[in-house]
Amino acid sequence: MINQTNITIVGFGWASIGFIQDIDTRKYNVTVISDHDSFVYTPLLAQNVKNNRDIAIPISSISKRVHFERGLVSNVDFKKQVTTTDSHKTTPFQYIIFAHGSDVNTFGIPGVKENTLFLKTMEDSIRIRERIEQLDHGSTIAVIGCGLAGTELIGTLLDYNRYTVLAVDALERPLATFSEDISQRVIKLWEPEQVKMHFKSLVSKIHPNSMDIKNQPTVNFDLAIWCGGIKANQLSHTVNHALQLDCLRGIPVNEQLRVANRENIFAIGDCAFSGNPPTAQVAYQQGKHLAKQFNTNFQDNRTFAFHDKGQIGYIGKGESVYQSSTFKGGGNLVYYFNNLVHLYNFGKVYAKSKW
Predict the structure, then answer these.
(1) Number of domains present in the structure of the chain
(2) pLDDT digits over 185-208, tens only?
(3) Which of 125, 242, 246, 320 is most buried by its number of CB atoms within 10 A?
């Protein structure tokens, strides 16, 4: 039987994985276009700076029923229903799903791109590890942005037991999306480890070995890592312009994850502006939800509802913190639970995808 309906997915991350796992490939021809040919288990990126584990799964190991095209989509002709990559390769589509993620947000601060390292990809974690290994004992490493990724990175740096760590954030505490109690637990662990904390500190410029903070003295460092958030990337802006959509935060979607009420255009994951937090949980659930809608030919046209399973993160010295609607806490036991969660989720992605 020859499949008649073509679905093109732009990007290969959590949203795409969720979709690929559940889509009925007997009904659809699925093509993934991405500049990366591996899925990276991003919740372990920060810890992987030190641990150096294999957290990438090649797409060739994930599915034999999904076609992969290597390339970075630069333009989409919605009238002709064709995508174009940076190498000028074109791919026709009947349905298109944008799942290409986001870019690092530097907030236009001078010197961020030139003088800091980012932590967003597998290559980034390797680059950070290599730079850290070149530092002398006692060197100062600044982490700018103390959300979940930045906090986990600081926790990982503490485990080296050889560097001075700076924590810098414009907000008043680390893990601002967690409760005040959780943030205080983080601070109480960091204080005896001599972490130099600069909260409510708005960085105005970054030099090769120092940063300017508004209304505060200049802060020096040997290595700086930027974990300051995300923003819509160029492809999202290109799509919005082509569809005459006015949204700076991503591609706006409705409750069915459709773009501009078009029957054949969807967006999921970090590139979509849906009112949900830009997390791996949301992206994965959106992908699975959309696949099930395709499988039923959108008969019920069910709206997407995010089921929050809580947030968990490593904070250093064998301790993690966790928060959900029913529980919050931290410590060594939560650290072991954290490891089990990641082991289970990584195994689930790999095992369920290998069909």
Answers:
(1) 2
(2) 999 999 999 999 999 999 999 999
(3) 125
